[in-house]
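thoughts on these tokens:
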Amino acid sequence: MNGNQHFQRLNFFPGFFTTAQDWIDEQYYHVEKAKLANRILHRPGVAEGLTVEPKAAPTPGLILVVNPGVALDAHGNVICVAGRHEVTVKPDGDEADPITVRIKLRVTKDLYFTNVQDPEYSDFTRQVEDVHLAADRNPATPCEVVLAHIKVGTDAVAVTAEDIDTSGRLQVGAIDAKRDADMLVLATKHDADLAALETKHDADLSAMKERFLRLREDHLARQRRHNRGLHTVGVLHKIPSADEQASEFSVRANGGMSVTVWPGAAIDAAGNEIFLDAPLTLAVQPTEQDKRVYVVVSYVDHFAAYIEDLTQPFTNQARTAQCQVTDVPPDNETWLALAQIDLAAGVSEIREPVDPVNPQPNEIDRRVRVFSGAVSVQPTYLDPPVQRHLVQTMLATRHHFAALTRRFPTPSLDDVRYGAVHLQMTATSVDRGGVFNALNGLSLIEETTESELAQRYPALIDEDATMGYKGAINELRQTLLQEQDLDTVLTAQQAVAEAALLLSEVVFPPPVAVAGADQQVTTPDAEAKVTLDGSGSEAGPGRKIVNYRWDVV
């Protein structure tokens, strides 16, 4: 960045005399800022095109063709390939090291201008962006983008389409701002800028690292809670991959005493996401006796170590899988089984199973691999004893309030009985919360019944049975508000039903009839008119006389 910590660009003004270096600095500002934006916002990889295929006849051999396309390297350079390019595969070296087809940006100069009068001011007038292709067993550098892996031996004379594996190449993608933004700001600094920053701001950098790790751990904790709540332990199904069989931690034989674990993702019992982004080869030790071994995977996170040393390249930071071969049975909580192999004594080669359903000794058995699924949420119904208590209480409520309805009918009494019928019928399919909600509504209706009885039948107001009914409802309301156990609440409702029964059995004292003073009436006919004085009659406490009927005795 113009050799300084901060971006600088020209500030033009009238009379400002510019030199060639000024214009170089101006270009450098725009180029470096665009590269920085690319590094912060995008992961390196292939953006489009850049497919790899063998060269067609008549001159095939160890020559590949890279088709036009666009890629982005780890430094933020945009690599554009306008036409088809050929690259020769170099199979020399250790066959254990894969051959990678790689591409990187190459800048050359062109169009030389010669100043005849002043040769000192002669130079090239153009910088040309070109590409450099390589296909050998050397590892890729951060400035290179991997296009494919080639599976050929050192004695290969030709490359076929089956030898080209593009499952390991990365696509350009947007960076997850919640998880990677702060880390990419640190990771994309140049080594010189990092050294200067560490010298001047060690304390600030340490605080920034600590804060970022706390934020990341908070994000991972939320992710773990999400995974534990929604997913069971196991390998995730069908993670997108160029090779569908290579997307589920598939373990394959290589020939000899080694196996390859192909990319995949899984969730352990803690909710950690285990991810393998590229094939991993594991050695299996020969044995002198029959023995069962397991290929297992568990979660590991090297991110904190990476943050402590930002000078190391940002590679494989997404990988959280560690795989190994062991004779210890995995628990399928921390260590997940991917395959098992029953080794026979003196085994010299591990093979693919002829029958995957019934693998034989020295064959890979992938049946032990457990796949993740959705966590099912089962409804929490009432225990059978509580269900029986609920049915008995609602049955008593129906019968006792029916008796009260026959004696003192009010509109809300039928509502109480309907509510009791509903709870009785749904006792086997309702949970504790549903019962509490229903009983809360039922108690309010029973409370309304008490008010209606007082309005329609004033004689009931001072009766002990009425006071008992009112007290039972108050006790029920208190148990509901305190959210006591369901048996206690049902017992309180039973008390309300029994109070209603007592209320229906209230006996009022008979009225006292007084017809006035004795009268002697003499009449020549069978009928005579007599005036009686009933003002001395009494209906009883809380009642009034609304009609008189007199009988001759």
User: Anything to note?
Assistant: The first helix runs from residue 20 to 41. The two ends are 126 Å apart (CA to CA). The mean pLDDT is 82.
